[in-house]
Specification:
This protein is of the alpha/beta class. It is built from 8 helices and 8 strands. The two termini are 30 Å apart. Keywords: Nucleotide-binding.
Length: 243
């Protein structure tokens, strides 16, 4: 069995590769919001580790992860705060979306009520968050709308409670990035974060924001954000670009 490798040999392509490799990452704070059980943690786990856990417990408070997204002319290092969806944690949300450059608001396409909650989050962000924040509205669990063997058309339609066209119209009217995704099979996940990376006004990210990646205060101790994982252990997150 033979294999072939495609190698870029022209000078411009090689220069682009060299520039990309030497580009210093731009830190961008990103927060995930949405009702409980819509798949926020699964979405970010797919993006960061290209993994999916069928039985994942609820997030308590918030989890922190990082991932780089490499574009043609820049590298965005997302500092991701995955917040809990339970109502009792709602009051903590401003602490996480404060000074964020981006927010991903997630709903479950099989539960219309989760979209109502997502719209409430979007209004709150538009009212209280960074005025230049990039907001992505993401309808998760798209895999549940894909027919499996034996499904009838009626059964498939009954699964979806939120119509794509309606949400797309709302997103366009509200100036939002919009995607439907499946954390389970990875559909649309990288595309969401790639589009966000493209739209973040990096020239407006202040020097103080870029310095945030060094360390943050957590009570009486300080932890290096680059070494912080979702379970609180000091283990490097996946540095491979998932975009």
């Amino acid at each position: 069995m033979t294999s072939s490798t495609s190698i870029l040999t022209d000078e411009s392509s090689m220069a682009a590769i060299h520039t990309s490799a030497d580009t210093k990452p731009i830190q961008a704070k990103l927060v995930l919001l949405g009702e409980a059980a819509v798949g926020k943690s699964s979405l970010v786990l797919r993006f960061v580790n290209n993994d999916f856990q069928e039985k994942k417990g609820p997030t308590i408070g918030a989890a922190f992860l990082t991932q780089k997204c490499r574009l043609e002319d820049k590298v965005i290092k997302f500092e991701i705060w995955d917040t809990a969806g339970q109502e009792r944690f709602h009051s903590l949300a401003p602490m996480y979306y404060r000074n964020a450059q981006a927010a991903v608001v997630v709903y479950d396409i099989t539960k219309a009520i989760s979209l109502d909650k997502a719209k409430i989050w979007i209004k709150e962000l538009q009212r209280q968050a960074n005025p230049n924040i990039v907001i992505a509205l993401v309808g998760n669990k798209a895999d549940l709308t894909v027919p499996s063997e034996g499904d009838t058309k009626e059964e498939l339609n009954a699964t979806r409670e939120v119509l794509t066209e309606e949400v797309e119209a709302y997103a366009n009217e509200s100036g939002l990035v919009f995607f439907e995704t499946s954390a389970k099979n990875g559909h649309g996940v990288n595309e969401v974060f790639t589009q966000i990376a493209k739209e973040i006004p990096t020239e407006q990210i202040s020097a103080s924001t870029r310095l945030r990646s060094g360390s943050v205060s957590t009570g009486n101790s300080r932890v290096n954000l680059d070494d912080r994982t979702s379970n609180g252990t000091t283990n490097k997150t996946n540095s491979k670009c998932a975009c």
